[in-house]
Design a protein that fits this description.
The protein folds into 2 domains: about 1-210, Rossmann fold (3-Layer(aba) Sandwich); about 220-285, ACT-like. Chain A, domain 2 (Alpha-Beta Plaits, 2-Layer Sandwich), CATH 3.30.70.1150. The protein is about 30% helix and about 30% strand. The protein has 10 helices and 13 strands. Helix 4 (about 105-115) packs across helix 6. The two termini are about 30 Å apart.
């Protein structure tokens, strides 16, 4: 359980968090949303024990800043901005495995499951990887440990659609026995992943609401699209989702169920050329 009591934080004369009271329990998947400067990242940094603050923060009754080593063993963290680490990926994986007493091979397996060839990147400095590659490595490190608290700041922002689908299925395996705190600027990006929404604005919690928990994170949508004319921009956009077509008028492919809002957002840009959309959901319980 996570508990914030009268949590306050200021930088100089600027109040960033304003006496927040908040409790989070196992099994809750929370979307922490709000604009830049709302206080989301500062809240997370206090939870990780990185800042001093007013009030109190407790994780299973322990103060993160006083018991950082013990507390952080239970936390998997995916930052929005990747750290500028110059060490090779293999050294990073080994360091995390030794520090957290976890199986390094499990992290490697997740890296591969997310679409990277570990052998191709293991010798590269982490800082030299692309944005998407860094994100996949960081997600693998967070999920490859036996962490029961997952804190993720825009975790899927740099992932391709196929990797996003894999990421959602990996989260599905942990959803019942962990706490997930997912920070994002946009609710529609994370809405299918969560069962509670907390919105922040200028250091205050302005919304705390339970939401419908109906989307299967392991589901797949099989889609067929028909367009009324050739459109190069549409073809390029839909090809990035690995859709295919034999005549440039009828397109087919599949997307992850939790990605439906993101996908429909892409389609909305081409409403003038789309004449029909058909989606059928399949629930994959084997992955």
């Amino acid at each position: 359980m996570i508990k914030f009591v009268q949590l306050s934080k200021s930088f100089g004369k600027t109040r960033v968090l304003n006496e927040l009271d908040l409790s989070i329990n196992k099994g809750e998947r929370i979307a922490l949303v709000g604009s830049n400067g709302a206080g989301k990242t500062t809240l997370i940094r206090c939870l990780l024990g990185e800042y001093t603050y007013g009030g109190s923060v407790l994780i299973d009754g322990k103060v993160p800043r006083e018991f950082r080593t013990d507390v952080l063993k239970h936390i998997g963290f995916v930052p929005q901005i990747s750290p500028p680490l110059k060490i090779p990926v293999a050294q990073l994986v080994n360091y995390v495995a030794n520090l957290c007493d976890c199986d390094g091979q499990k992290i490697i397996d997740l890296i591969e499951e997310l679409g990277l060839r570990y052998q191709d990147i293991s010798h590269l400095p982490f800082v030299k990887l692309s944005g998407g590659q860094k994100q996949k490595v960081l997600i693998s490190i967070a999920l490859g440990r036996d962490a029961d608290i997952l804190i993720m700041d825009e975790p899927a922002a740099n992932l391709d659609p196929e990797a996003r689908g894999t990421f959602f299925k990996l989260l599905a395996k942990k959803m019942d026995n962990s706490i997930m705190l997912i920070s994002s600027h946009r609710l529609d990006e994370v809405a299918p992943l969560v069962n509670r929404v907390i919105e922040m604005d200028q250091g205050n919690i302005v919304l705390d609401d339970v939401v419908a928990d109906t989307v299967d994170l392991s589901s797949t949508l099989y889609c067929q699209l028909t367009i009324n004319r050739d459109d190069q921009a549409f073809s390029k956009a839909i090809s990035q989702w690995h859709f295919s077509s034999e005549d440039n008028h009828h397109w087919s492919g599949q997307i992850s169920g939790p990605d439906r809002l993101r996908f429909l957002g892409v389609l909305s840009r081409y409403a003038a050329v789309i004449s029909s959309i058909q989606m059928n959901e399949n629930h994959d319980k084997t992955t």
